[in-house]
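Student: I would love a firmer grasp of how sequence relates to backbone shape in proteins. I am handing you a single protein, as its sequence and its fold in token form. I am told such tokens are a discrete way to write the fold. I hope you can help me see how the letters and the tokens relate. Take your time, and here it is.
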Amino acid sequence: MELGGAHLRALVELARCGTMTAAAAALGYTPGAISQQIAQLERTAGAQLIRRAGRRVELTDAGHTLVVHAGHILRAQAEAEAAIERTRAEIAARLRLGVFGTAAAAFLPPALRWLAEHHPGVRVVSQEVDVDQAHAEVSAGRVDLALGLDYPDAPLPRDEASELVRLHSERFSLAVPAAGAPPAGTSWRLTELADRDWILPAARTYYGRAIRTACRRAGFEPRVVHEVTDTATSLAMVGAGLGVAPLTGLMLRLRSEGIIPVPVDDPVERHVVVAVRAAARGRPSVETLIEALRQGATAGA
């Protein structure tokens, strides 16, 4: 009986979440894909693993038993990969890295240059992923590591199977139109911005939720007149005088024309992180790529 890692991860996540929809969201699949994976796993195991209980899903006795062993199997696979790597004289592997636009532009080039110079055997294939799905992409096994953004006011999910390694931290200021910028050296408190028009991502995003939470803590609800996800677009709209938007040093690298950064006295920050399966931390190639990303963060910040 051969049990595929992706199918086992689907069962483990289903046991944790309790519904096909929640498990699909956690792993970045559709509910139909999760259902198909479970059905294939049941055919392979020769036993019913789940049963419907209203809108939720319950594990059968066989399902509970397999979930326990699935964790052991997935960890053993990762430990075997790490052990094999450690037998090699040279650190060498092909790793899949999930990236998002800002970090890819700032961190990835210096990180890959550092790898080429110090560990040319580690080859990186990158693919763009939704910044809010870094954890899910790693959990689903679609990438080995993924860059993401973690906000103290809207943290990324944590679990025992994966880790978030912090690479860089930055504090938010505010992007305002250059035409209406305050005198140099001015700083604002968030409460002074209650009557401003804001340009923010949707509240369902971690970024959008974090900024709204910070504003509510300051005592007001931001008046969002333009809901925009793309950073370069939002900053272009600020430059056109359509509102104000949060700004960090990395964001400023994407666009600076027509805007002025104004410091905010209230401490609102975010952390650039890399998500990685906990069991994979023992792989020399994974640790090497994490170090390369740290080097890239230092060079690109």
Notes: The chain has a mean pLDDT of 88. The CA atoms of residues 163 and 276 lie 5 Å apart.
